[in-house]
Amino acid sequence: MEEVSGNSLTIDQIITTALMLSGLIMAFLCFLHHRKKPPNFSQLTETIISRSWNTLQVGILLASLFLLYLLAACSGRFFYEEQIPLARLVITIIIYVIMVSIISIINRRHGGNWVDSLGMGFGNLRRLILAPVFYLAFIPFLMAATSGYHLLLEALFESEVELQDIAKVVSGERSWLGIGYILMAIIVAPVFEELIFRGIVFPYIVKRAGLISGIAVVSVLFSVMHFHLPSMVPLAMLSTALCLAYWRTGSLWVSIGIHVIFNAVTILALNVMG
Q: Which of 44, 49, 146, 253 would bridge 207 by S-S if both were Cys, CB 3.0 to 4.6 A apart?
């Protein structure tokens, strides 16, 4: 990384410092707001619990997801090696469309709608303005924990931390395929993952095990399902922030917004900072 003209700081150091400082300020402001207007924990938790599906409905959803990913994993043998990146993108989008359709059908039979079950009505879109606030408030803690975790992994395995496969694609040379992966990572994946993990699984576990257990279990599942050891702690922390944002605001739009910002900033960092 080249140095900025007339300054010993590199671009990545400037961006990192700016995020840390603005994040710490936002975290302090959120703390002050929390002290001044403490949330009603019981009421907020009951709102999440009231959105829980039953065990059969959650089982059907997760079984469908597992089956689709199993079929996708077996589909690689039908493509040439150079066709696999495009096929993987198309198959992933198809899985997302099928799963969202299943969620919509089950949700309707559950007797709910997108507003009552997920806080996703158009009237709640205005709460998206809270997404940057939550993102900035938690990013300093995420950055610090990620740095420490990666140093630990490098010390244990005596090698540099490798990027996820999707990160390698979105940080490579620009192409229509690369742009497709970027759009999926920034727009499509956050919506799908928030529907599954925060919208469906989180209320189900909170109803049966409590808020803290719900956050812990969902965060572990969320990190493990990405199948990338260097990302497990950062993703678990991200999931914790997303669960708390959904619990605090009652709208899945907020956690989707945070997820979108997180993925977008990560991709920007990979391409600008290296």
A: 49
